[in-house]
């Protein structure tokens, strides 16, 4: 199976400490990978590395076989790679404009035709159940509505990879169901690779093909979801799944 990401000998150091250490990791294209683990495990650091936001102190990341690029001298190449990905954070920030223009922003940066922008924005808003919100000012939205607009803004660019960092953490059950339906739909219809951080283990069970457990900046276990939950090998993962404190 094609790897969307291949990490080799990765280290990220900060304040004299290693906060991420991944000797080798491959994330399959076209699949949903859930990243779980206790607070401070390095999950968000990993996601930001994949999105070319965190630069490794050592090692290399390949994106569909091509080395990811960091640095001012290669900013154009870095931007090209980033534009193949979309990122939804736990608390999304809206631009000071309408819902329509928030969702359209990425397409405008990519210089899409105006007629195509309208069609794609309305399609994305329909997917998240907010077609009637196109002319609403984004700052009038509830938290759940804001996250759904952020999801529409992310999928409208038709990314090869969708990265989700606790994107449903503060949502009510109805919004979570909408979010999950869209994630399944985009993967099914577009073959999008999805990497999602979640503290909701039931969500990981529902959504993921593969689960990955992180602890203290390391990947301690990675397996098909059924095996991950039913037959965990690592002692810390066993404790984590059982609800015991993991240090």
From TrEMBL:
GO terms for molecular function: ATP binding. It comes from the Bacteria. Pfam families: ABC_tran. Signal peptide: none annotated. The keyword Ligase does not apply. CDD domains: ABC_PstB_phosphate_transporter (cd03260). Gene3D superfamilies: P-loop containing nucleotide triphosphate hydrolases (3.40.50.300). Residues 5-241 form the ABC transporter domain. Keywords: ATP-binding, Nucleotide-binding, Transport. This is Phosphate ABC transporter ATP-binding protein. The lineage of its organism: Bacteria, Bacillati, Bacillota, Bacilli, Bacillales.
């Amino acid at each position: 199976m094609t790897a969307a990401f291949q990490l080799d000998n990765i280290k990220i150091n900060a304040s004299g400490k290693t906060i991420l250490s991944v000797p080798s990791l491959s994330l399959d294209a076209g699949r949903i990978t859930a990243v779980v683990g206790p607070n401070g495990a390095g999950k968000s650091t990993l996601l930001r590395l994949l999105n070319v936001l965190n630069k490794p102190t050592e090692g290399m990341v390949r994106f569909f076989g091509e080395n990811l690029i960091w640095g001012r001298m290669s900013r154009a190449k870095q931007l090209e790679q980033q534009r193949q990905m979309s990122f939804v954070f736990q608390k999304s920030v809206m631009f000071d404009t309408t819902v329509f223009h928030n969702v359209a922003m990425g397409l405008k940066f990519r210089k899409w035709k105006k007629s195509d922008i309208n069609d794609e924005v309305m399609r994305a808003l329909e997917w998240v159940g907010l077609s009637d919100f196109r002319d609403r000012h984004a700052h009038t939205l509830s938290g759940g509505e804001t996250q759904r607009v952020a999801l529409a803004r992310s999928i409208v660019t038709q990314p090869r990879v969708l990265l989700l960092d606790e994107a449903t953490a503060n949502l009510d059950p109805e919004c979570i169901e909408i979010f999950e339906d869209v994630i399944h739909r985009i993967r099914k219809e577009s073959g999008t690779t999805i990497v999602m951080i979640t503290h909701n283990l039931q969500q990981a069970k529902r959504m993921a093909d593969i689960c990955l457990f992180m602890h203290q900046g390391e990947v301690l276990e990675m397996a098909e979801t059924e095996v991950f939950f039913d037959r965990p090998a690592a002692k810390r993962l066993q404790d984590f799944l059982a609800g015991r404190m993991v240090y």
